[in-house]
User: Which sequence fits this backbone?
């Protein structure tokens, strides 16, 4: 009985050892698979930069006793109008508050806003006035300027449709990975049409080209890095 028991224990130990070795080899293969196939999805595909319509707005604060705009506010309106001329050919809206304590002052300064827009070159026929219900809350409701233009943008960030821990265990990037980078890149694109294709080359400036050639012909750099000018 003791011999049979010894043989049984030896066989059991061998089986357990074999199972452990197979498990270790399998785990190594899994790790290699995760390492070589990590992050299969591309954040640029999940959060693409697209060209779409976007509303651009700016709020102009108006106190209840204002009869005209201060110089700083005029500069802001002119800057907004310059961006409008560069990005849009549609209309620009002047949205006036209705029912607020400063509604009379807002109607008084709207003419000043129109003058600032005209000074930058915005035609009067492209400026329309609308109103919105502000309510008598006691606060100074702003005048909102808005227009619609083509812009480069991405979908809003901050969505968490999946469990973050599962993606981490599977060595995959989470859903919001790269969204902020794509959004910042889209905001830095001054001309969204650059994403469609390259611009046409501008005409050659013959005068500037002549100055560059003359400068290059009149200078020479020796081996020591010293520039010698020939008269």
Assistant:
């Amino acid at each position: 009985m003791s011999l049979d028991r010894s043989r049984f224990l030896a066989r059991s130990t061998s089986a357990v050892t074999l199972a452990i070795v197979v498990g270790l080899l399998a785990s190594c293969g899994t790790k290699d698979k995760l390492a070589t196939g990590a992050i299969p999805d591309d954040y640029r595909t999940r959060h693409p930069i697209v060209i779409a319509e976007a509303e651009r707005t700016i709020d102009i604060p108006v106190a209840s006793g204002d009869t005209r705009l201060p110089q700083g506010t005029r500069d802001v309106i002119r800057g907004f109008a310059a961006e409008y001329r560069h990005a849009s050919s549609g209309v620009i809206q002047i949205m006036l508050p209705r029912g607020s304590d400063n509604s009379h002052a807002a109607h008084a300064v709207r003419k000043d806003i129109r003058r600032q827009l005209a000074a930058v070159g915005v035609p009067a026929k492209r400026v329309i006035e609308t109103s919105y219900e502000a309510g008598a809350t006691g606060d100074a409701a702003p005048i909102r300027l808005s227009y619609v233009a083509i812009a480069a943008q991405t979908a809003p960030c901050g969505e968490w449709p999946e469990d973050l821990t599962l993606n981490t265990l599977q060595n995959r990037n989470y859903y919001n990975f790269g969204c902020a980078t794509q959004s910042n890149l889209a905001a830095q694109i001054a001309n969204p049409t650059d994403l469609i294709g390259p611009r046409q080359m501008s005409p050659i400036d013959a005068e500037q080209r002549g100055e560059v050639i003359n400068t290059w012909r009149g200078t020479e750099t020796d081996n020591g890095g010293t520039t010698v000018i020939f008269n």
Observations:
- The radius of gyration is 34 Å.
- Residues 2-36 form the longest helix (35 residues).
- Strands lie at 50-60, 92-98, 127-133, 143-153, 219-221, 227-229.
- Confidence is low (pLDDT under 50) at residues 29-40.
